[in-house]
Amino acid sequence: MQTSDKGIEALALEEGDVLRAYRCPAGRWTIGMGLTAASGVIKPRPGMVITAQQSRDLTRKALAAKYEPRVALVMTGAKQHEFDAGVLFDWNTGAIQKASWVPLWARKAARSAIETKYRLWNKGGGEVLPGLVARRERELLILFYASYPVAKESRFRPSVSIARWALPVDFAEKLAAMLAFDKLGYKVGTDPGAIPAAEIRRFQSDHGLTADGRIGRATLSTLQRRIDAAAKTKPVALAAVGTAGASSGATVPTGTSEVTDWIAAQPWAMGAAAGVVGIWGLWLAWRYRDVIAAKVSARAPRLAAFLRSI
Asked: Is residue 115 part of a domain?
């Protein structure tokens, strides 16, 4: 059994269909509908660009090689829409073979019991994520009612000056993203429906993304990496800045929250960080070299391009 065309389109709406390679929040090069080297069908690399048709073909190859066989094995006798829901679930979680809702579905248990178990798959990093909560609800609509999500089209032609949200995200997620953009210096305003496209294009250009003004998977994944870099490097930065400043006699500004800020702004920062925080600091700098690239892109575009290429 294969995923239907409606199932593929639902997957594209959930994952986005990014035709230029980008780093996912975990730092893996990704392209298309979330395809990494682990997919076995492509090895995304810096600067790689594919067509929309290639993306669909690669997605179907990945589904046929891994996901569809797993779903078919545990959802014997599934109707097309049920099979599609199982594929969407497994693509996101990789857990169709151990999910407790599947045996309940196979035994034709009460719908409420299946829904309860299905909705448990709403966490990331141990926390309930609103995006996953909403995603599970959309999958349940497919599973029980064959109701597939469709892209919403406005009756009005969108202004080229206003950024568009290219993924199904709720108000809370939009607000969190806007606050993060603003903290990084991108003036996106306070209205999720009127974000200046120019500011999103500036963010995309700074980070080596396709500057189309659309807030999609690549843009949000890159934004998440900036957020993660700030959170994970803060303790290291405080130690590195304090010790390095004291040893060098330099006047060190207070409030620095990212070691990548110092690496980008101070030539001695990499060496100082290595001396103070050792291998851990260097590893963080390496892991978030794309963040460093974004910080130095205006002053040193060649260095930024090199950091993005490795």
From this structure: yes
- In which element (H, E) is residue 214 found? strand 214-215
What are the backbone angles phi and psi of residue 188, rounded to the nearest 5°? -95, -5
pLDDT in tens, 154-192: 544 556 799 999 988 888 889 999 999 999 999 999 999
113 lies in which domain range?
5-145
**pLDDT tens by residue, 197-221:** 999 999 999 999 999 999 999 999 9
Statement to judge: residues 248 and 196 lie in one domain: no
252, 241 contact by CB (below 8 A): yes
Alpha helices in the chain (DSSP H): 5-15, 52-62, 68-74, 80-93, 101-106, 111-118, 130-145, 171-183, 197-206, 217-248, 259-265, 269-287, 289-296, 301-309
Structural domains counted in the chain: 3
